[in-house]
Amino acid sequence: MPSTEWSYDAATSRSLRLLSHLPVAAFGGVFLPAAGASVAFVLADPGVLRSPFVLLVALLALVGGPTSLLYLWPMLADPDQRPTRSAFSGTDRSLFTARSVVAAAVAGALAVVALVAVGAPFEAVYGLVVGCVFSPILVAVATTTGQLDDGELTINRREVPLHRLTGVRSIRVRGVVVLWLFYAPRSGLFVPRAAAVPADAGVGAIRGALEAGIEADPELEPPDRAVQAVGVVMGALFLAFGAAAYVALDEPAVGLYVAAVAGGMGAFLCLLGIRGV
């Protein structure tokens, strides 16, 4: 069986690289307009620089914490610790470059200003900014590295139990093939369930290994009834605690948070108990 290895991440995919820059765009969309408004306000009324609040901010910027000049100056003054230009030159397929960071920040600022100018609701702008901040989660989910060697398939450093596969589905999105793997019951919680493979990375060989595993007849062990019972009981207790907290707590937001955390844990334990580990 031919060997192959692949890597689908922000360094090799333009789409993932764009998603990786969305947090920079979000921060630029918030801080650049705020900085511009602050500069305009100071130019209109220079006397504001003598206010206690501005003096406090200046003091904190000088000596106020790990990002203040007092903490950063030793690093900037030391040639061995000082960031070099080559670190941001974009060599070796680096994810962020000075140009890409500036472009993302400016684009985010222009987008936020444009939305505010056309009268977009605050909730929409806020949701867009928050969504951009959490976009690296999508990048982490889509990032896949894998290797097929001597009939053994590894995805994200986890070996795929080919003999327990029961099915595989795939869909091609532009130059990427997304694979969904299905296993026999009680194959484990952390086995690879999905993988994104570049279309030119030997998809045929990977599918061949998966289909060969599907043809095998896995041995199905009976579930441990005691473990199942404990899982269901513990899950029911967590669900009951979440429901009671939601009803008993006076603050709705706190009650909803506790109910969501406890209910999520309870549902997870119930699922484990029903399906078996």
From TrEMBL:
Taxonomic superkingdom: Archaea
Entry keywords, A to Z? Membrane, Transmembrane, Transmembrane helix
The membrane spanning regions, by residue number, are 21-41, 53-73, 94-118, 124-148, 229-248, 254-274
Query: What protein does this entry describe?
Result: Uncharacterized protein
Give the source species: Natronomonas moolapensis (strain DSM 18674 / CECT 7526 / JCM 14361 / 8.8.11)
